[in-house]
Design goal:
3 domains, mainly alpha, Growth Hormone, Chain: A
């Protein structure tokens, strides 16, 4: 799963009789859906195959970097792409972003070492971040206002199938064809949707942009991305290098975060700041656990990659089911956000215990964690829009994305350092310590969720 910005405030109610696939938009809509589906499939499948990659390339110490590198670079490119697209229009950034993503697939799929694999994943993050921002602008420029809400709804739906089958399919491919084909096999599939989008892209022109608009935000994004990367590098470094890198990384985060997040976010200020903080905490805890579940299943319980993918799939099923329940309920969104935070915490604790006993016990436990995310994520998106003035909804939605991405990258990186620190002989202990970290972060999310509403 990933963050999908809620677009309903950008569009007028659509004509019920008009559909994005009609009125000449069929090719553009299908191209957009296929691109998003491919990006989503790769994102969901990689979690299943990472234990196989780490084993084949002898790279357990860099296991977490296979995820953190992508998250950090996508955070950077997501923020920086906005100004580039405003200046040049979305066509060139979209094509370059998609091409960069494909280059990352080639590097990762052909990597002879874990370091080159991580580099490929970082390149993928750069490309996907630019491509997704450009795609939002393409939708704004290609579709009339009364169709945009439907298109964004289709975009969200494009994540459903990859979320449900991506982990299992990735495991089957890794088991029968080899993990490299999870990356290399996507390359020819990128060509058809790109060709479908070419006619729509040709007619898009750049608009006048404000010179140096958001320059301070760009510098802050660079500082945060660099700070996160340096900090995570420092956690794996020996002696004084660890101390120096950690200090430099924290300095970058301290400089950039106050400029990217609403004031008071890190102090659990009531209202909007706590909404954004809860999203970062829950995303970090849940996706951190999601990253290490396949490693525990394959290394501690002799699961195949395909069997490990089943556990991730049931978490996605829990997410989908609870998301539908909360969408149809008239209860306050804060209720579902708090319920979700409690269930994520419970799911992580139960899964950590289950993984020390039997791999299959993790299946019902992780359904609970997935259900918690389904209740919380959409509810927090609605709360964010409810608490944001109309002229701040865009920047606050961006802050939500940054919190999601940064929370996931830092938690996964720290947990990776803990697991690697215990070495292969004590992997069970390292995973147990990582599980305790995820549970503690989710519990902090429960506390922050008590401060979602502004007292009157």
């Amino acid at each position: 799963m990933t963050t999908v910005l809620e677009p309903e405030h950008l569009a007028s109610p659509p004509d019920p009789g008009t559909k994005p696939r009609e009125a000449g938009f069929r090719g553009a809509t299908l191209g957009i859906v296929l691109v998003v589906t491919l990006l989503a499939f790769e994102s969901m499948a990689v979690g299943t195959v990472m234990p196989v990659v780490a084993g084949d390339l002898n790279g357990l110490s860099l296991y977490a970097w296979g995820f953190s590198a992508t998250l950090i670079t996508s955070l950077l490119s997501t923020v920086l792409a906005g100004g580039w697209i405003d200046r040049s229009g979305p066509v060139r950034p979209f094509m370059i972003g998609l091409g960069t993503f494909v280059a990352g697939l080639v590097i990762a799929g052909a990597a002879p070492s874990m370091w080159l694999f991580v580099a490929g994943r970082a390149v993928q993050g750069l490309g996907s971040g630019v491509a997704m921002v450009a795609m939002y602008v393409v939708i704004a420029r290609v579709y009339p206002e009364d169709l945009r809400a439907r298109v964004f709804g289709i975009l969200a739906a494009a994540w459903v199938l990859p979320s449900l089958i991506g982990p299992a399919v990735g495991g089957v491919i890794a088991e029968h064809a080899g993990w490299r084909w999870v990356f290399l096999g996507l390359i020819p599939l990128v060509i058809p949707p790109t060709l479908m989008l070419v006619p729509a892209l040709r007619g898009i022109k750049a608009v006048d942009a404000v010179p140096n608009a958001g320059k301070g935000r760009y510098l802050a994004a660079i500082a945060v991305s660099a700070g996160a990367g340096i900090l995570l590098y420092g956690l794996d470094a020996p002696g004084w290098t660890m101390a120096a890198a950690s200090v430099a990384g924290l300095a970058g985060l301290a400089y950039g975060l106050p400029k990217l997040l609403p004031a008071g976010t890190l102090r659990l200020r009531r209202g909007l700041p706590s909404v954004i903080l809860v999203r970062g905490l829950l995303s970090g805890a849940f996706f951190g656990a999601n990253v290490f579940i396949p490693l525990a299943l394959t290394r501690l319980h002799d699961f195949s990659a395909a069997q490990a993918g089943i556990v991730l799939t049931v978490g996605a099923l829990g997410w989908s089911a609870s998301a539908q329940i909360q969408a149809r309920s008239k209860r306050p969104r804060a209720f579902f956000a708090r319920l979700g935070a409690v269930l994520v915490t419970a799911g992580i604790i139960l899964t950590a215990i289950a993984l020390q006993l039997s791999g299959w016990l993790a299946v019902p436990a992780w359904i609970i964690g997935g259900a918690g995310m389904g209740f919380a994520i959409s509810s927090l998106s609605v709360l964010l829009l409810d608490l944001s003035p109309e002229d701040e909804q865009g920047v606050n939605s961006s802050s939500l994305q940054i919190s999601d991405t940064l929370g996931s990258s830092l938690v996964v990186g720290v947990a990776g350092a803990l697991v690697a620190g215990f070495g292969g002989a004590r992997l069970d202990t390292g995973l147990a310590v990582a599980g305790a970290l995820f549970a503690a972060i989710a519990a902090l999310g429960v506390i922050a969720a008590l401060r979602l509403e502004v007292r009157t």
